[in-house]
Design brief:
The chain folds into two domains: 55 residues, Arc Repressor Mutant, subunit A, CATH 1.10.10.60; 145 residues, Tetracycline Repressor, domain 2. It has 210 residues and is an all-alpha fold.
Length: 210
């Protein structure tokens, strides 16, 4: 009985993962509004009927993709800051580490320009999506604030909360331009601006790529 239950649970996890991957592919290539559940099920190799065993509609699956992206972002940011604290990195090491990290993360970002553009509109249509975006942003600010309070080399210009909010708000705003210009000539310019903001407002380091 237990083995049978585990098999069902494994199939459920596998099916949901297939649907998530198929949806991400289609939302990235075609956009949210040009994708339907029939297409998602076909790409996932799952019947349309089974789709509705896991998700009520494409908005439901889009919500989960955004939630997953936010969770992965929070974990990645926490890991980076913990690495810097635990290894007591010097200024040159921090610059190298942050530059390499941001370069890699933005190249691998699951949110394409189309996905991101749709998100701005969809957030108004899908119930609770705006709320989880706001909560996710607030949690990232808290992570930054806690780091600043522990970082021995911090150059305090205001309260840790204000510094965290300022660095996140500015970097987040620039990241919009980074995402929508990916693959264009100005992509690197915006990416470097985001890196410079992170280094200056969190670590007090002035930087320009040479």
């Amino acid at each position: 009985m237990e083995k049978s239950t585990r098999k069902v649970q494994m199939r459920t996890v596998e099916s949901r993962e297939k649907l998530l991957n198929a949806s991400l592919k289609l939302f990235t290539e075609k956009g949210y509004y040009n994708t339907n559940t029939k297409e998602i099920a076909k790409v996932a190799g799952i019947s349309v009927g089974n789709f509705y065993n896991y998700y009520k509609d494409k908005g439901d699956i889009y919500y989960e993709l955004v939630e997953k992206y936010l969770d992965e972002s929070k974990i990645a940011i926490s890991d980076v800051l913990e690495h810097i604290l635990e290894n007591n990195l010097g200024e040159d090491e921090i610059i190298q580490f942050i530059v390499e990290y941001v370069d890699k993360q933005m190249e691998r970002a699951i949110i394409s320009d189309r996905f991101f553009t749709d998100l701005q509109v969809i957030a108004k249509d899908i119930e609770n999506l705006s709320r989880i975006l706001e909560e996710g942003n607030e949690q990232i600010v808290t992570i930054l604030e806690e780091f600043l309070s522990k970082y021995p080399k911090v150059k305090k210009r205001a309260s840790y909360k204000v510094m965290a909010m300022m660095s996140f708000t500015l970097a987040n705003k620039i990241s919009t331009s980074v995402i929508v210009t990916k693959g264009t000539e100005v992509y690197r310019e915006y990416l470097d601006e985001m890196i410079a903001i992170i280094l200056y407002y969190i670590f007090g380091i002035e930087w320009r790529r040479v």
